[in-house]
Design a protein that fits this description.
161 residues; mainly alpha; Arc Repressor Mutant, subunit A; three-stranded antiparallel sheet; 3 strands; 61% helix; 8% strand
Amino acid sequence: MSLWQELGYSRPFKQPVEETMLNIVHTGSLLVKEGYRVLRPFGLTDAQFNVLMLLRYNSVDGRINQTSLGRMMLVNRSNVTGLVDRMEKAGLVRRVPDPQDRRVNCVELTAAGLEAVSEAHAAYFDRLSHIMSTLSAAEREKLIVMLEKVRSRLKEGGEKG
C-alpha cells in the first residue's frame, strides 16, 4: 500500500521529495513503536536499552564516561543524566569514578543490567531480523548507503544547493 493511502490522504503526493521524507519519518516512527513494544516486557525503554547495549558491546572495560555516553546516544544529550539516574535507581547501572580522572564519572553495567540486556537483546534482534528480512542483504546495504548520504547532507547545515 502506498504511503498516501496508508495515511488516509485523499490523493497521491505531488512532490516525490515529500513522499520520500514522509516515508522515512513514518517508517522510523513505526520502528520506534515496535521497539517500545518488544522492550516493554523487559521493563526497558529504548533509551535504557541503548545505554545497556553501548555498555555491553561498545566499552573497553564495561564502562563509558558519561560525556562519551551522551555523544553515542540516540537521545538528546541533556537527557542522559536523568536517564542514568533512573537506571541507577533501578539497579541496571552504577556510576564509578573514572580511573584516569576522578572528576569524571563513568557508567558501568551491574549484574542486573547485564542480565536485562542479555534477555532483551535476543528478543529485540529476533524481531528486528524478522522485520528486515523483507529486504535482501544487497537492499539493506543500499539503504544504509542512501540514509548515510541523507544524514551527511543534513549535517552540512543550512547550506542550499
